Amino acid sequence: MRAFELVSARDSRHAVALLAEHAPSAKILAGGTDLLVDLKSSPRGPEVIIDISRAEDLKIIARKDEGLSIGALVTHSEIMRSPLIREMFPALVDAAHTIGAVQTRNLGTLGGNLVTGVPSMDSGPTLLALDALVTVVGPAGRRQMPLAEFFVGPRKTILKPDELLMEIVIPKQNLGKPAYFLKFGLRKGQALALVNVAASLWVDWDKHVFVTPRIALGAVAPTVIRAPKAEAYLEGRAITLEAMAEAGRIAVGEAKPISDFRASAGYRLDLIAVLTKRALEGAYALAKAKREAK
Amino acid sequence: MVTVTIKVNGETRTASVAPETTLLRLLRENFSLTGTKLGCDVGDCGACTVIVDGKPVNSCLMLAGQVDGRDVLTIEGLATIDRLHPIQKAFEDHASLQCGFCGPGIILSAKALIDENPAPTTQEIRDALGGNLCRCTGYTKMIEAIRVAARTLRDEVADQPA
Asked: How far is CA A175 from CA A4, A96, A170, B82, in A?
């Protein structure tokens, strides 16, 4: 690995101070599952690594007034174990479980997965389908934005070199919103998604129609994306399997997948139709189960 | 240089290393604990698996400096001079390894699993080994051995005087 200077941040404030001191030649080290691989393979790299893996204030999962806050340093394993997340958003648990393997899930963090910004990330779709917000902190203080605006392109986010992702917030109106995540990879473990999809929905049980349906797709565009036309088609529509299938077909037209060594664009488009329909079915089944449990 | 003090297999050890040193290299090159293997060096193969503060991790994906003050268990910490660890014994009894290169990582993944879940199902064992590649065996005999080892460890706990 190339030589660099290693500094350790006590907490998020300290990390921001260190960033201000060392940016733009510094990089944040969280779980390291992406960064260390990059540092080993790239001929050029940052001069300073700011290790935030001991910043306890970024490891908290908590209910707040604005919703459910998940600290950027929460690992995928911690998401899988969190009683709060298991109860409110089993889709986030399922998504975390599909990432890498036990060892990488124990190291890799939710924030790191979002900041690395690969289009096939498994954390993105469910959070997008739940209208998640992200809180970013820098020398000028904090700012918050929808996660959808955080992603700019493959491995590109709006984070400035001196800014840090602090937390992910699922807004309070979506707490407990039925959501479902599906990933299609070539193996169960250690495989990137060919396509991953998340859907969330509320149900108006009197009319039996979709309310605020959300569909998010990964690995089929330069960033994780929503499928707004498919969502608009479902809004207020009677809940049927045919409507879910049609939403899947509409979602196909909203994606721009590439062909690569993992799959062709055509295959990915077919997967979008099937997985979108199944994710909607899964979210609806969860909505029904929640209603019956009451 | 960074100074790193860790508890490894119960013993406190210190080394001064370059900042870019991984935990894997610290263990192998500074502490001569070569049971932990360097395989892919990018977190895919699991040959470098060690247990840090109770959790299995890829030691190739951690910097030595990140582990300062923490507790590390490597394969050398399992057996004593006169007794193999029950997981190692089960692997021997079932001929679970051929070349053995993946063994230290697999056995530590199994240990972390059984510590957390004393009666894992076959599916749970498969999930726990998802980050450990073995190109010799096909895993079947490892899974059998881990089931047996889990039972042995449960019996040992049950046999302990109250």
From this structure: 43, 18, 7, 55
Whether the CA torsion B77, B80, B85, B91 is positive or negative: it is positive
Residues 6+ away with beta carbon under 8 Å from A23: A161, A162
Q: Which of A174, A191, A217 is the C-terminal boundary of a domain?
A: A174
Q: Number of C-alpha atoms within 13 angstroms, CB side, residue A223?
A: 20
Say if CB A4 and CB A49 are below 8 A apart.
yes
**What CATH class has B2-77?**
alpha beta
How many domains does chain A divide into?
Answer: 3
Q: How far apart are CA A121 and CA B154, in angstroms?
A: 39
Fold of B86-159: DNA polymerase; domain 1 (1.10.150)
Chain B residues with beta carbon closer than 8 angstroms to that of A188: 130
Q: Domain ends where: A51, A71, A89?
A: A51
pLDDT in tens, A280-293: 999 999 999 999 99
Work out the number of other CB atoms within 10 angstroms of the CB of residue B43: 26
Is the pTM of the predicted complex or chain greater than 0.80? yes
Contact A121, A155 (CB under 8 A): no
Best of A39, A97, A98, A103 to mutate (most B CBs within 10 Å, chain B):
A103
What pLDDT, in 10s, does the model give residues B24-80?
Answer: 999 999 999 999 999 999 999 999 999 999 999 999 999 999 999 999 999 999 999
A interface residues, B as partner, C-beta within 8 Å: 1-6, 8, 29, 31-33, 36-37, 39-41, 49, 51, 53, 77, 100-104, 106-107, 188-190
Q: Which two structure tokens, joined as six digits, stand for A214?
A: 């959300």
H helical segments located in A64-175: 76-81, 83-88, 90-97, 102-107, 110-116, 124-129, 147-150
Distance of CA A129 to the CA centre of its chain: 9
* Residue A151 to residue A16: CA distance in whole angstroms: 21
Rounded-to-integer distance, Cα B78 and Cα B64, Å: 22
Q: Classify residue A161 by its DSSP letter.
A: T
**End-to-end CA gap in chain B:** 49
User: Are the beta carbons of A14 and A150 closer than 8 angstroms?
Assistant: no
Q: Judge whether B15 and B26 are in contact, CB under 8 Å.
A: yes
Distance of CA A252 to the CA centre of its chain: 20
